[in-house]
């Protein structure tokens, strides 16, 4: 019997409310959690991260079933949800906390990340501003940030609604 292994990857895609909502709609994603990644303080609050003095990026932990959806597919979907050449800015949100990044916990995933990154870079004349780093740390954001757009359907989001429909319909053909 094949064991269902759940893997995880961390995406910083600007404001984490929309990034989380986008990923939770993709078939094969089993859990999402918003928080703060790769900063230099311990257990930061949203208010502290908002100052841009902690080094953290608003980030979504994505847990997925690789038997249903591949890391490569998730990475390609991520690039559809961001402007990868924009430094510290997505939509109207500006600051280092809104930088884009791919943070991995399994070094064997790096070859897939590198491949997708190179494919995406080939579509742009400017260098990509997306960090590609091992996850150093991750702190869960306060409860009111979790599943924010489910709790607040009319809440602010930098992503267009059409992108959520796209994510809901996106299927990986394995």
Explained architecture:
With 174 residues, the protein is α+β, with helices and mostly antiparallel strands. It has a single domain, classed as Peptide Methionine Sulfoxide Reductase, Chain A, CATH 3.30.1060.10. Helices cover 28% and strands 24% of the residues. The chain is built from six helices and eight strands, in the order βαβαβαβββαββαα. The protein has helices spanning 16-24, 46-50, 71-80, 110-121, 148-151, 161-169, and strands at residues 7-13, 29-37, 57-64, 89-90, 93-94, 100-104, 130-134, 138-140. A six-stranded mixed β-sheet has the order 7-6-1-3-2-8, with helices on one face. The chain has a two-stranded antiparallel sheet with strand order 4-5. Helix 3 (71-80) runs parallel beside helix 4 (110-121). The protein is globular, with a radius of gyration of 15 Å. It starts with 6 loop residues before the first strand and ends in a 5-residue tail after the last helix. 35% of the residues are buried.
General form:
globular
| CATH fold-level label | Peptide Methionine Sulfoxide Reductase, Chain A
CATH superfamily placement: Peptide methionine sulphoxide reductase MsrA
Through-space gap between termini: 20 Å
Whole-number average pLDDT?
95
Q: Based on helices, strands and strand pairing, what is the structural class?
A: alpha+beta
Spatial order of the strands forming the largest sheet: 7-6-1-3-2-8
Helix share bin: 25-40%
| Number of DSSP E strands | 8
Order of SSEs, N→C? EHEHEHEEEHEEHH
Low-confidence runs of at least 5 consecutive residues: none
CATH class: Alpha Beta
Number of helices: 6
CATH architecture annotation name: 2-Layer Sandwich
Number of domains: 1
Main β-sheet: number of strands, strand sense, barrel status? 6 strands, mixed
Beta-strand residue percentage: 15-25%
What's the alpha carbon Rg, rounded to whole Å?
A: 15 Å
């Amino acid at each position: 019997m094949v064991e269902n292994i759940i893997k995880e990857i961390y995406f910083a895609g600007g404001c984490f409310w929309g990034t989380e909502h986008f990923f939770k709609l993709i078939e094969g994603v089993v859990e999402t959690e918003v928080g703060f990644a790769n900063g230099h303080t311990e257990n930061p609050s949203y208010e502290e991260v908002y100052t841009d003095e902690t080094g953290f990026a608003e980030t979504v932990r994505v847990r997925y079933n690789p038997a249903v959806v591949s890391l490569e597919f998730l990475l390609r979907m991520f690039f559809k949800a961001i402007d990868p050449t924009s430094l510290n800015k997505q939509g109207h949100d500006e600051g280092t906390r809104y930088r884009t990044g791919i943070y991995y916990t399994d070094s064997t995933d790096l070859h897939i990340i590198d491949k997708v990154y190179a494919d995406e870079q080939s579509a742009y004349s400017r260098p990509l501003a997306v960090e590609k780093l091992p996850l150093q740390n991750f702190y869960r954001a306060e409860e009111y940030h979790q599943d924010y757009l489910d709790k607040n359907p009319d809440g602010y989001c930098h992503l267009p609604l059409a992108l959520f429909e796209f994510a809901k319909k996106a299927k990986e053909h394995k």
